[in-house]
């Protein structure tokens, strides 16, 4: 239904002077009683409804509503902030949350206001940065080979509550992204569960020795409490890997990717840079680095709209301080 016209407001004022009720007026104007009731409430001044005053108040409300929709476009500082974040492929929800929780010096804009900005002529060129515009999802079975039954493996069922609930830093998940059938090379993806901080490593082959060395080299000098992997043949020598990283290696149940959902989620984001079915050996190293940096610098709601990189650095500092405190003798003074 269209907005009320000035002639209808004049009729409402005339009927009210004749002491007609809201429902009677609604029938006379072929409007709903709630519409008439709301108009009288919003258009009255000190309990008196006049058509000219009601029309001015309605015009003012509509103008303010349009300004609110273009809140981002009308504020140069806010527009610059939102534009830069969108160009960095941040999501509207992430940008809004970041302004509310972290960058509070910037005037706040809701997720809806940012989408209005993108949908307007001011922000239209930025629409292709939205995730749904950048990525075309393609289904299909996942390639890979699974190891046979292994009696030496430590099941994910034994993983601690702190690791499961992301209460403790140092628990990682690992997985592979494969080339298409005619391609070569793979990407080894490691993600820390609490901070969602990823590592993406290209490898030409997936022998157990090579994979173990890559994981140990990547996580060297980092406090590792556990690594969760699937039953891929490349992870068959998990006992040797456990010794290399000095942490327990948990294996998921066969064909249950949800048990390492953190790395699976990151893999989906990496597909924006490494399309499904492509030859990974032909992907330039700078593109893989770009994917890694993109995932490390996304505003994430689960992290209080901080980035994985910010959260990673904070957790490393906490670990370093705790280690120094633990090794410093009691009563030692400078």
What attributes characterize this protein structure?
334 residues; alpha/beta; 6-stranded mixed sheet; two-stranded antiparallel sheet; 46% helix; 10% strand
Describe this structure in words.
- The protein has 15 helices and eight strands.
- A six-stranded mixed beta sheet has the order 3-8-7-4-5-6, sandwiched between helices. Strands 1-2 form a two-stranded antiparallel ribbon.
- It is an alpha/beta fold.
Q: How do you describe this structure in short?
A:
With 334 residues, the protein is an alpha/beta fold. 46% of the residues lie in helices and 10% in strands.
- Strand residues, percent: 5-15%
Shape: elongated
Sheet of most strands = 6 strands, mixed
Give the CA-CA distance, first to last residue.
78 Å
Computed Rg: 29 Å
Number of helices: 15
Number of separate strands: 8
Strand order of the largest sheet: 3-8-7-4-5-6
Uncertain residue segments: none
Layout of strands and helices, then pairs:
Elements: H1 6-17, H2 22-29, H3 33-43, E1 44-45, E2 48-49, H4 51-69, H5 71-74, H6 76-87, H7 92-101, H8 111-119, H9 131-134, E3 154-155, H10 161-164, E4 171-178, E5 186-192, E6 198-203, H11 208-218, E7 226-229, H12 238-245, E8 248-251, H13 261-270, H14 285-296, H15 308-327
Parallel strand pairs: 3-8, 4-7, 7-8
Antiparallel strand pairs: 1-2, 4-5, 5-6
């Amino acid at each position: 239904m269209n907005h009320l016209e000035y002639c209808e407001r004049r009729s409402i004022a005339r009927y009210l002077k004749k002491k007609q009720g809201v429902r009677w007026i609604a029938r006379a104007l072929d409007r709903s009683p709630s519409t008439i009731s709301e108009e009288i409430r919003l258009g009255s001044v000190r309990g008196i409804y006049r058509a000219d005053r009601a029309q001015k108040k309605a015009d003012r409300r509509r103008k303010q509503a349009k300004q609110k929709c273009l809140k981002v476009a009308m504020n140069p500082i806010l527009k610059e902030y939102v534009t830069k974040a969108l160009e960095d492929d941040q999501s509207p929800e992430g940008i809004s949350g970041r302004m509310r929780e972290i960058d509070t010096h910037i005037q706040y804009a809701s997720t809806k206001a940012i989408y209005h900005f993108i949908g307007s002529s001011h922000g239209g060129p930025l629409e292709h940065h939205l995730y749904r515009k950048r990525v075309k999802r393609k289904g299909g079975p996942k390639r890979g080979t699974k190891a046979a039954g292994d009696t030496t493996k430590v099941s994910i069922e034994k993983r601690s509550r702190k690791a499961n609930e992301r209460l403790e830093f140092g628990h990682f998940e690992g997985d592979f992204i494969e080339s298409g059938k005619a391609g070569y090379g793979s990407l080894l993806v490691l993600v820390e569960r609490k901070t969602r901080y990823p590592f993406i490593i290209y490898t030409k082959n997936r022998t157990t020795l090579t994979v173990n060395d890559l994981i140990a080299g990547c996580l060297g000098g980092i406090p590792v409490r556990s690594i969760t992997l699937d039953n891929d043949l490349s992870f068959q020598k998990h006992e040797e890997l456990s010794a290399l990283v000095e942490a327990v290696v948990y294996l998921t149940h066969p064909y249950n990717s949800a048990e390492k959902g953190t790395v699976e989620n990151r893999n989906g984001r990496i597909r924006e840079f490494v399309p499904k079915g492509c030859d990974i050996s032909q992907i330039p190293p700078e593109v893989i680095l770009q994917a890694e940096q993109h995932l490390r610098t996304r505003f994430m709601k689960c992290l209080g709209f901080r980035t994985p990189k910010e959260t990673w650095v904070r957790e490393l500092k906490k670990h370093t301080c705790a280690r120094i405190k633990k090794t410093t003798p009691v009563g030692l003074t400078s």
